[in-house]
Amino acid sequence: MVATLTCKNKKHTLKPSTMVANNSTIVLFIGLFATLATFVSATDFIVGDEYGWTLSFDYQAWAKGKEFVIGDKLVFKYPVGKHNVFKVDGNGFQKCVVPTANESLASGYDVITLATPGKKWYICGVGKHCETGGMKLVIDVVPQSSAPISPPHVVPAPTPAPHVVPFGKTFMVGDDSGWTLNFDYQTWAMGKQFMVGDTLVFKYPTGAHNVYTVDETDFQQCIISIYTAPLTSGYDVVTLTTPGKKWYVCGVGEHCKTGGMKLVIDVLPRSANAPTPTPWSSYKGARRLGNTQGQGLGA
Q: Range with the lowest mean pLDDT among 46-55, 203-212, 283-292?
């Protein structure tokens, strides 16, 4: 097909290749606009606003009237060690029961990205904080396309400091290197004893990486379930609450598959007479993978 345009008595013929190129440019701009619209519409919600995540607060009244959209973030802010955050199902929410397979968020500044539509339930698993203290939140997340575009509300991230969990040991994943590309995390984990009550700290530049808890199959294949929300604060603290194998990966681009950002550990039960370990891992035997600097990895 050849299109002919007439302008001031001159005919201009558009070749098919030119028309295809122009169409490709239009499609590209449409895609960029859609991506920008999604970014602009994202909102960060500090749960409880200035009160944060605390006792005797009506979180359902707080959530009333708010529109939570895919891409938005919930920030649970509280004093470290006093509370935590568990993602549960509707039954666990109603009865304030934490499933044994779930792990708590316990950094004091827990950021949860809303990745899928539908109802989401969160509770505090400390003592009776959910049952009698009202520390429970349920929200309904709607798809991005059904929500109006609004200016972003940016929550400044604090500069967290390492902390010690009274009943366990804290491991900084990767030690001084943190959670990064081209690092052998299985060598790092070798020789360490992880026990129920210990915590893992994933430290990385905010926005560069994230942390997903996955199962063994997804770990081997570097696949992220659409039903799992990542940790994205840049200082993600995961408390090991149950024994058994635990798998973690980075879900950004090819960071897991080709960048080596995957960790599996075996968590042991904590015996009643187990000595209280000193905080922080001292094993420095981890090594870099290869000599690449992340060339070709998706961002």
A: 283-292
